């Protein structure tokens, strides 16, 4: 049982499942209904995400020892050897790419692109520049696009719009996390808030700005006439409520308000994505 828990922590099982929700929403919104493809998408997507998360922990195994939130991970605690971790990543990556290829070539290429960008670009940049969040937003926004292309088998406007909505959401979402974990991140030398001044009005303003921008961007499916009035109303209300959390953080710059925004971001994304599906014209 302890080994299973170690593997679950190594691949960040719960986070991987959340990623799959976005991929599934993209597939369903694009009009997909084949349960075999859904199975390939979910299983292949899980393995690629697991390989990415595991690779991140291999990169940062020495840094994880310095932070309270990560010091109990399998590698820092020696519950998993480095060779074992590398083997798990290799197996997950190989299975993920192969299963996504069973859907179509573009799905496999997107899975590969997400893995490479997250592991070999975003991860090393985290200690160098706050722009790492911008880089990380690209692989972070691929799941709904991957889901849509699993059905359409082409890079079209619809997958691009779904990508852009999640791309915009990434900024207030991740910066809220970075605000909450700011002191812990500093121990490992990570620079993840948008301003080098840290938890200041400058960073809070940028979080608020992207939260506000998310409102019109989230209404793109309605503007494209892919969704109906429910998307217009609920998207505006949800976006407005999400913005209020960010505005509150701008006023107070307190960690409790950053935490509220962080949890709001986890709730916001799957709700708006499945509203698109149920309100599809």
Q: How does the SSE layout of this entry go?
A:
Layout: H1 2-11, H2 13-29, H3 35-59, H4 61-64, H5 82-103, H6 105-125, H7 132-140, H8 142-152, H9 157-180, H10 182-187, H11 201-218, H12 220-223, H13 229-252, H14 255-278
What this model shows, in words?
- This protein is mainly α and 281 residues long.
- Helices cover 78% and strands 0% of the residues.
- It has 14 helices and no strands.
- Helix 3 (35-59) packs parallel to helix 6 (105-125), helix 5 packs antiparallel against helix 6 and helix 9 (157-180) runs antiparallel to helix 11.
- 47% of the residues are buried.
Key attributes of the depicted protein:
single chain, mainly alpha, 281 residues
Give a short overview.
It contains 14 helices and no strands. The protein is mainly alpha-helical and 281 residues long. The termini are far apart.
Structure annotation, total helices: 14
Helix-strand sequence: HHHHHHHHHHHHHH
Provide the low-confidence segments as ranges: none
Main β sheet profile: none
Which percent band covers the strand fraction?
A: under 5%
- Approximately how much helix is present in the residues? over 70%
Q: Average pLDDT across residues?
A: 94
Large-scale geometry: flat
Radius of gyration: 19 Å
Output the structural class.
mainly alpha
How far apart the termini lie comes to 47 Å
Total beta strand runs: 0
């Amino acid at each position: 049982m302890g080994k299973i828990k170690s593997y679950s922590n190594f691949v960040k099982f719960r986070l991987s499942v959340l990623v799959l929700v976005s991929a599934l929403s993209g597939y369903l919104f694009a009009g997909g209904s084949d349960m075999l493809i859904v199975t390939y998408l979910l299983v292949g997507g899980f393995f690629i995400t697991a390989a990415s998360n595991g690779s991140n922990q291999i990169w940062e195994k020495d840094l994880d020892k310095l932070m309270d939130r990560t010091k109990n991970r399998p590698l820092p605690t020696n519950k998993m050897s480095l060779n074992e971790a590398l083997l798990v990543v290799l197996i997950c990556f190989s299975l993920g790419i192969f299963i996504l290829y069973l859907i179509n070539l573009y799905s496999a290429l997107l899975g590969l692109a997400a893995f490479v960008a997250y592991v070999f670009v975003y991860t090393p940049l985290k200690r160098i520049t706050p722009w790492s969040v911008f880089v990380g937003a690209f692989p972070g926004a691929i799941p709904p696009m991957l889901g849509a292309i699993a059905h359409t088998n082409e890079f079209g406007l619809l997958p691009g719009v779904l990508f852009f909505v999640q791309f915009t959401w990434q900024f207030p979402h991740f910066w809220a996390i970075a605000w909450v974990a700011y002191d812990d991140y500093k121990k490992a030398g990570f620079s993840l808030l948008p301003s080098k001044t840290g938890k200041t009005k400058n960073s809070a303003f940028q979080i608020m700005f992207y939260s506000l921008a998310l409102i019109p961007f989230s209404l793109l499916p309605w503007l494209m006439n892919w969704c109906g009035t429910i998307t217009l109303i609920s998207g505006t209300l949800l976006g407005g409520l999400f913005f209020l959390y960010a505005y509150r953080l701008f006023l107070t710059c307190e960690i409790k308000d950053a935490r509220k925004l962080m949890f709001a971001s986890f709730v916001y994304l799957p709700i708006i994505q499945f509203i698109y599906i149920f309100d599809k014209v």
